[in-house]
Design a protein that fits this description.
The complex is a heterotrimer, with one copy of chain A and two copies of chain B. Chain A is mainly alpha-helical. Helix content of chain A is 46%, strand content 9%. In chain A, strand 5 and strand 6 form a beta hairpin. The longest helix of chain A is centred in the middle third of the chain and has 27 residues. The N and C termini of chain A lie far apart (118 Å). Chain B is an alpha+beta fold. Chain B is built from ten helices and five strands; from the N terminus they run H-H-H-E-E-H-H-E-H-H-E-E-H-H-H. In chain B, the strands form two sheets. A three-stranded antiparallel sheet of chain B has the order 3-5-4. The termini of chain B are far apart. The C terminus of chain B is likely disordered. The chains are: A mainly alpha, B alpha+beta.
Chain lengths: 260, 220, 220
């Protein structure tokens, strides 16, 4: 039972006259054999005698065995199943109610046969449809439907001017000029604090040591930071003492006792 | 002829040209894209179809779209040399029919119906022709691949869609398609020995969109 | 309809189908081969040609044979044109700006001004859009092509004349060009830390290392 997709149809070769020639090569498996045998009964598949069909199949396999043909296992499984089915159909119902009855098994086999038969017919109907490039033809030289994408660029005049401006700017700024920042440095703060070092016996707020006239913002903050850093340096070297009573509270400083 | 009629004639011309020019069928939307907004494309297509009925070239709806085809009754007289796929074997035709009518279907299910193993060559050939393709996996143990038919299949056989198969409705009505296929391989368990190649069975409910009324018609 | 007329209709159908399905034009003999001997193919073709005149598809005689063609007046409508908005790359807009300001300008000069190589792709895109065109050749060794802007460029950017582009001083006045010295200016007061090159960015998702001279960022 070769199953190659393209083979010569062996069915006809397997049959001679009315006698079913035992040649398993021509069949597509046990169900196919059963279907072929069922057609011999020349009745509607739904009215077929399953008992007679089982007998025919068993005889078919017996002949094949007699001829010492190589018989694939599934043909033998089907033979065994049909023998079992036969016994169930002939003998009274078995004591176990869970087992299917002979009639149920027969109906199942009929269904299987009908279903395969239906698919065979469906295949034939499918193949009989008007088929493209065999029965019907499409346009031999279709022009095709071009789909053209037109890109639309949406740059504005502003984009253009900005681009040019940046371009020129980049050119001008090729030399890096750092504008001197007017920020307070720690050196400045140290210098300033040293001048008053010995003259601060009392606690004084750090901000009172800031240079006068500071603008608010970055420069002021840089002065605070620089002065604070300077006080830390002076405290480290024992020149002054620092005190802060609470977090974020004013930072107080005075000269260290030995410095005055 | 008033303006509306003129427009209508012009739209019919355009649809005619579109469908002639296109190598593949066009669906209503693809046609509508090229016509003024609000045009009743469906009505125009119905008219055009009627206009071409009985001519040497017909307008047909196939594989989800409209296309022109030569009239099928002229097949013999055209004698056009075209590449025709080789003749499919019986196994090939049967397998194709089972896939077409039962899709999505696993290989084990095909084997169940045919009562015989499906050689991979059969599926390969059908896939090579371009008529079948893997369409998903069955959510059962082993997650087997399911097979279905392609647009090329529809085009080749001139079918509008997968539900357009000849006799599909009757087969469904008789329970030969769609019912859970309990098969001999299942009842073979009752045999004193197990079959050589226990065929896998479908236990799980189908996770497929073609929800069939599972009318347990498997004859028990 | 008598027999002759029936035959005639059938012959027209066949010719129609033949010409439709054929990949190449067919001449009278090739058509006659498929019709009964003695059929007046020429007359039939004349009729068929008349039948299709004015439709979306016409029967025409071309390259020694008959073939169907979509009507030529519909050609434009068959093509589906879709406008897709695109963004010009930074290199593109800068190159365009330089050409606009410095025209006629050679590619080498553009590169000199940009300080970066200009890919031919950039010029190609600008030329394809229709904003620039070669305007001549520089009479220097190699006679390089010079580029300038087109009328389309003026139209798109709403300029009457290319001399309408604001000059450098005007650009500076509007803040589009600034001195932009590197400084920790007062504007940094809201920022804990402001690296000199980290200027506000355009929020467009394209390749913007393209820092805008945002009017609040540079030196006052």
């Amino acid at each position: 039972m070769s199953d190659a997709a393209f083979e010569e149809d062996g069915r006809e070769a397997a049959r001679e006259g009315d006698e079913l020639v035992v040649d398993l090569e021509g069949y597509e498996g046990p169900i196919d054999v059963l279907l072929t045998l069922a057609r011999e009964q020349k009745v509607d598949l739904t009215k077929i005698s399953i008992l007679a069909l089982a007998d025919q199949y068993l005889a078919f396999i017996a002949r094949a065995r007699h001829l010492k043909l190589e018989i694939a296992a599934d043909y033998l499984v089907m033979a065994a199943w049909l023998a079992y089915l036969k016994s169930r159909l002939l003998l009274p119902a078995p004591p176990d109610p869970d087992e299917p009855s002979g009639e149920e098994l027969a109906a199942l086999l009929t269904h299987q046969l009908l279903r395969l038969e239906a698919m065979r017919e469906a295949g034939a109907r499918l193949m009989a449809l008007p088929r493209l490039d065999r029965d019907v033809f499409g346009r031999g030289a279709p022009e095709g439907l071009p789909r053209r994408l037109i890109p639309k660029y949406d740059a504005t005049l502003l984009d253009l001017l900005r681009a040019y401006g940046q371009q020129r700017q980049r050119k001008e700024n090729a030399v890096l000029r750092i504008v001197p920042a007017e920020l307070y440095s720690m050196d400045d703060a140290l210098e300033r604090l040293r001048r008053v070092l010995g003259r601060m016996p009392e606690w004084r707020n750090l901000v009172t040591f800031l240079p006068p006239g500071l603008s608010h913002g970055l420069v002021e903050r840089s002065a605070i930071a620089a002065t604070f850093a300077a006080t830390l340096e002076l405290a480290r070297t024992g020149k002054i003492e620092l005190r802060q009573d609470r977090a974020f509270g004013p930072i107080m400083l005075r000269s260290a006792p030995g410095v005055i | 002829m008033d303006d509306t009629e003129l427009d209508r004639a012009q739209h019919l011309r355009l649809i005619e040209a579109l469908l002639f020019a296109s190598a593949a069928p066009l669906d209503n939307e693809q046609i509508a894209e090229r016509l003024p907004k609000g045009t009743d494309v469906a009505a125009l297509l119905t008219d055009l179809e009627a206009e071409y009925r009985g001519r040497g070239v017909n307008l047909i709806y196939v594989a989800g779209g409209w296309t022109f085809r030569t009239a099928s009754d002229l097949a013999d007289k055209l004698r056009l040399e075209k590449v025709v796929p080789r003749k499919l074997s019986r196994a090939g035709i049967e397998t194709l029919a089972i896939i077409a009518y039962h899709q999505p279907v696993t290989r084990a299910e095909i084997e169940d119906i045919r009562g015989v193993a499906v050689s991979s060559g059969t599926l390969d050939v059908l896939m090579e022709i371009g008529w079948i393709a893997p369409v998903g996996r069955r959510e059962t143990p082993g997650r087997p691949v399911t097979w279905g038919t392609t647009d090329d299949f529809l085009l080749h056989f001139g079918l509008a869609d997968r539900r357009d198969l000849p006799g599909l409705e009757e087969l469904k009505a008789t329970g030969l398609i769609g019912a859970r296929p309990v098969t001999l391989s299942e009842t073979a368990k009752t045999l004193p020995f197990s079959p050589p190649d226990e065929l896998p069975r479908r236990d799980e409910p189908d996770e497929t969109d073609d929800a069939e009324p599972a009318d347990d018609s498997d004859g028990e």
